[in-house]
């Protein structure tokens, strides 16, 4: 049985998920139902309504427990670690698989010929694990000029929410194309400054606050 690994976890992490990996080579691990009754429902006082998904991970020799909310995830992680030295919890290595710095970023450029890789490279100055672009389409099936990226924000104690964010607007390309870059956290910060703002227009750019 291997110690906890994150080989089977995507780079963006698994939201609100805690992994319990069996670490005793000489002992037989608890079966799924026994683990659920003794540890989840007994020690951690979880109910079925608290849990989004409870599944065994044979590749890692672990159980992955996904909670419905970040608040519940943090509470259960704290409880599990508090009793981590007691049996049977001491037989498990407890790891959070959540990455709360995961963001979906939407970039809008009026020049559709700017290459995806140029935008991706720029975002890489501020974010890690930037995904390939996904061209967003409207209800008719036409590409609307927006490109979606998934990425992890870098920590920055001075940044909004403790993370470094790409600028909301920047120039890119030989023609100085103005780009709109939004993530939920950026919108929340700007919306707090300009709550009356709904639609802003600039050269080659349109911001639609949602």
TrEMBL record:
<dbReference type="Pfam" id="PF23057">
    <property type="entry name" value="RBD_ZCCHC3_1st"/>
</dbReference>
<feature type="domain" description="Zinc finger CCHC">
    <location>
        <begin position="107"/>
        <end position="175"/>
    </location>
</feature>
<dbReference type="InterPro" id="IPR042509">
    <property type="entry name" value="ZCCHC3"/>
</dbReference>
<dbReference type="GO" id="GO:0003690">
    <property type="term" value="F:double-stranded DNA binding"/>
</dbReference>
<protein>
    <submittedName>
        <fullName>Uncharacterized protein</fullName>
    </submittedName>
</protein>
<dbReference type="GO" id="GO:0003723">
    <property type="term" value="F:RNA binding"/>
</dbReference>
<dbReference type="Pfam" id="PF23058">
    <property type="entry name" value="RBD_ZCCHC3_2nd"/>
</dbReference>
<dbReference type="InterPro" id="IPR057810">
    <property type="entry name" value="RBD_ZCCHC3_1st"/>
</dbReference>
<dbReference type="InterPro" id="IPR057811">
    <property type="entry name" value="RBD_ZCCHC3_2nd"/>
</dbReference>
<feature type="domain" description="Zinc finger CCHC">
    <location>
        <begin position="16"/>
        <end position="92"/>
    </location>
</feature>
<dbReference type="GO" id="GO:0002218">
    <property type="term" value="P:activation of innate immune response"/>
</dbReference>
């Amino acid at each position: 049985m291997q110690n906890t690994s994150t080989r089977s976890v995507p780079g963006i992490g698994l939201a609100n998920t805690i992994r319990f990996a069996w670490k005793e080579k000489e002992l037989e691990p608890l079966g799924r139902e026994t683990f659920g009754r003794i540890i989840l429902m007994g020690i951690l006082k979880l109910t079925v309504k608290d849990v989004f998904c409870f599944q065994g991970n044979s590749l890692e020799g672990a159980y992955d427990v996904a909670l419905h909310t970040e608040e519940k995830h943090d509470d259960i992680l704290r409880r599990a670690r508090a009793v981590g030295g007691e049996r049977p919890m001491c037989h498990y290595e407890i790891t959070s698989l959540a990455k709360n710095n995961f963001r979906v970023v939407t970039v809008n450029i009026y020049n559709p010929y700017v290459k995806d890789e140029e935008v991706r490279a720029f975002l890489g100055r501020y974010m890690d694990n930037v995904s390939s672009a996904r061209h967003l389409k409207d209800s008719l099936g036409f590409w609307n000029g927006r490109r979606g990226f998934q990425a992890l924000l870098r920590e920055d104690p001075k940044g909004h929410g403790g993370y470094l964010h790409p600028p909301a607007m920047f120039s890119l390309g030989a023609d100085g194309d103005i780009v709109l870059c939004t993530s939920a956290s950026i919108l929340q910060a700007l919306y707090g400054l300009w709550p009356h703002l709904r639609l802003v227009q600039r050269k080659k750019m349109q911001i639609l606050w949602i």
